[in-house]
Amino acid sequence: MHNGIGLNTPRGSGTNAYTQSNKFFVKPKTNQVELKLVILEDKLVEQGYNESKIPDKLVEARKALEYAQQEKDEEEGVVKPIPTRQQK
C-alpha cells in the first residue's frame, strides 16, 4: 500500500498492486492560463504584430498570468500539494 492507496498485499488479488497517478487530471487553472495566452496570440496577430515579437509578448503575459494566479491562490488559501516521499 502506498499513501493509503492500493492493496495491503497483492496476494490472491489477481494484480501486482501497481498504482499509478491519473495522467488525465489537469489543473483547470493551467488550462485557463493557456486559453488566455491563445486568445492573446490571436489578438496580436490580428493587430499586425511582427511574428518575431509575438513570442516575447506571450512570455511576458505568461509570467504575469502565472503571478496573478499565484497571488489569487494565496489569497484564497489554496493548499499546495506536498510531495509523497519526504526525506527524514
From TrEMBL:
Residues 32-66 form the CWF21 domain. Residues 69-88 are annotated as: Disordered. It is found in: Nucleus. It comes from the Eukaryota. One of its GO terms (cellular component) is spliceosomal complex. Keywords: mRNA processing, mRNA splicing, Nucleus, Spliceosome. The keyword Ribosomal protein does not apply. GO terms for biological process: mRNA processing; RNA splicing. Belongs to the CWC21 family. This is CWF21 domain-containing protein. It comes from Gossypium stocksii.
